[in-house]
Amino acid sequence: MEQTVGTEVCVRNSWRGVLRFYGAINGARFCGVELEKPLGDNDGTARDGVRYFSCDDFHGIYLHPEHVAAFDCESDAASKIQKHWRKKDAQIDKELAIAQETFKALEEHGERASTEEHRLVRQPLLENFLELEDVSTPGGEMTEAGLSPLGSPLTTMHPGANPKFPLGMDDITEMIDSFKAKVPLHKSYVRRILKLGQGELSQLPNVVWLKLPPDARITVVGDTHGQLQDLLTIFDLNGMPSCSNVYLFNGDFVDRGVFGCEVVLLLLALKLVHPEAVHLNRGNHEDRAMNESERYGDCTNFRTEVLDKYDNSMFHVFLKVFHALPLVHVINNKVMVVHGGLPRSADVTLDEMDDLIDRNRGIPTVGDGGLEDTTFCDLMWCDPRDLWPDDPSEDEQPVALEGCVVPNPYRGCGVLWGSDVTHRFLAANSLQQIVRSHEVEWEGYCFYHQTKVLSIFSASNYVSGGSNFGAFVTFHGNTMQYEIQQYKAPGLDDFNEISSKRTAELEELNNKNLIWVRELITQNKLELYRYYSNRDQNIDGHIEPGVWASGLTQVLGIRLKWLSLRKLLYFTEHTD
What we know:
By secondary structure, the protein is an alpha/beta fold. It is 38% helix and 16% strand. It contains 15 helices and 21 strands. A 6-stranded mixed beta sheet has the order 6-10-11-17-19-18. A 5-stranded antiparallel beta sheet has the order 4-3-2-1-5, with no helix packed on it. Strands 9-8-7-20-21 form a 5-stranded mixed beta sheet.
């Protein structure tokens, strides 16, 4: 630009000012600018001690000419708009991060409450009654000739899929089309697929060792939680199972989503058609304690879903299938795939897990059963962490986690395990990497422990439309190199404009969080009143924000960023 003293200029594409000096200082060209706002570092005095122009303190600045441009009204307006939106975008990012962290903590707190409720209430009641007899009806064992549990063909035409046994890919296609139309499979076919699937799975050991052909690949899929749309999206992106396109589904097929039955049935049917190309691990939600939980907010539990579509006896058939699921798969002797995590005991190896654990039962959530129960629980419930504590207070400094935090403070069972546990286990079992699932990851995946642990979560839009990516990871048999694919199942196109989409996403996530938090506060209202009354020093009904936040943490037993959530929770209760 032509430098003319007295003209309005823009400094560094951001600051507005007036050019007061243009000339040489110590042999180099400089512009001296009087800024509109006190963003400078002098009063017109340059570093050589000469005052080339006069202005108020901190309004002067000297720069090389390339950092100064002629002021343009339109550019200035555009800059201000961009600055405003960057600020707003940063604020949304901050609030969204808090909302996501809150959702994850509330979800884990709900799981912890569910396991305690099952252990302390439902399980003792169940133990006082005889176990249900085998749910097969008196028609005897099912054979290949029969389609119904009675051994006779289904004579009434059903509006949904009518698969023929033994199953083929045409039957799979028919089932998918029927499920897309939201038509459940007839209970006769359901019972048949479940019983055949149970028989196939029960023959497998706790730890399944897979050897891939050099020209094959294997895709590991994380939690789907009854979201059929995610499963179908994965098949659309990655192809259907075959001898060269192998799949390993890493548990948590049910709960929260409304198509848990369809997800399980489709996976079992594929397992029956391609037993060497479809593999299934058990997750912590393949368990009665989780399936009967009432702590999923506005989502449904699996037992309720089964009762809506079938009946209670069918729910028990599903449970038998869940009990038959293997716990671990190892790919090419290099990659261990498990739903939760590693055993807390350094003495337990993969080779010992087959004889150590009886998996044909509910998942234990406390360690009073000894090494078998703790190992079983850890495989299903553990979480990795790089640093501890996760959310340090002002006087805490997070450090690298070594060993285990027992129990997992978020879930109430299992442990948090550190990097040293991972490296020790990999070395003891001659492995390269661990793939696990179990936690919602907002990008669909997350690395821990110097990339030695990969967490995969495949239920996209888990909280609401656009809330998170789903992901899957594919390993190539000849090299074991891997690729991670992110996706979002159909539904995202409803959001046309980026900023409004993100704002709507934040609002919906906050609304879900509020439902859970208000329920917790309501359940503990009397204890909170007592806590705050004891700390109301002036007896005027007012407490400090820090006291308010501490009370919620201690009484509700969950540590959230309460002060950041205050504006969402604050309300005045009037009494007459």
